[in-house]
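Hello,

I think I submitted the magnesium ion job twice by accident. Can you confirm which output corresponds to this input? Input:
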Amino acid sequence: MPTDTLPNPEKSPERSSGELIRLEQVTKRFGDNTVLDHLDFSVDAGKHVTLIGPSGSGKTTILRLLMTLLKPDEGTITVDGQKLFPATEKERREARKQIGMVFQQFNLFPNMSVLRNITEAPVTVLGMSKDEAVERAEGLLDMVGLADKCDARPAQLSGGQQQRVAIARALAMRPKVLLLDEVTSALDPELVAGVLDLLRDIARTTDITMLCVTHEMNFARDISDQVLMFDSGRVIEAGPPEKIFSEPEHDRTREFLSAVL
Ligand SMILES: Nc1ncnc2c1ncn2[C@@H]1O[C@H](COP(=O)(O)OP(=O)(O)O)[C@@H](O)[C@H]1O
Ligand SMILES: [Mg+2]
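Support: Only one job matched these inputs. Its output is below.
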């Protein structure tokens, strides 16, 4: 894998230690449904953390808060010491640049070529020159095995290919944090393994911090430094994957795992 297109460790030596993501006392309500209730939660730089737990427990809500697609009702969120909430628009925009996200439904721009999907944000958000953005995008497309699809439209690609483009698009911003929300759930079964292998490669060969929601327990076991079991907006159990998957302490964790494994 060409590492020159990936987040550059030399640019951010501080990333190897300390908290990169921090949520303090975060509360999120939808109407009278309190989804997150004074949640404290942090992810250390360079770590791969997986959130597991039943549907509706608030996993996506956490990722959407970090993407600033939602606002918390209370609490503070920081990324690499930069304020995300509460923050001025300018502070939020800066903090937000540290984060990339890949969604279950790919969410590519349908009217743009594959290449343009990847170059758009580096040019418009980071102010990168078009030439540099294209060079980076081509390197990333090579890495995800789609060098020949630059000019294709998303609709001309398989789900697995679209998700590879979405991963390349997120990495093009050189985020410190990559958020992955059930990124293989919408794929045909035969396409899942390829995307998971790509993510394993990224986890192994980069220092990017990953916060991942997945039902792929073998994948979670492989890449995670820590697994957090979520239930009703709370972390009810946390630990290394060997511990959570083999000797869970909570009945809820055991029940959940026996339903999904
Ligand atoms: N935009 C929204 N409007 C209203 N309720 C929502 C919205 N998004 C999520 N919820 C509710 O918040 C809860 C947590 O949802 P979510 O974070 O998507 O859970 P998970 O990802 O763990 O399945 C659910 O009860 C869901 O119905
Ligand atoms: Mg979800």
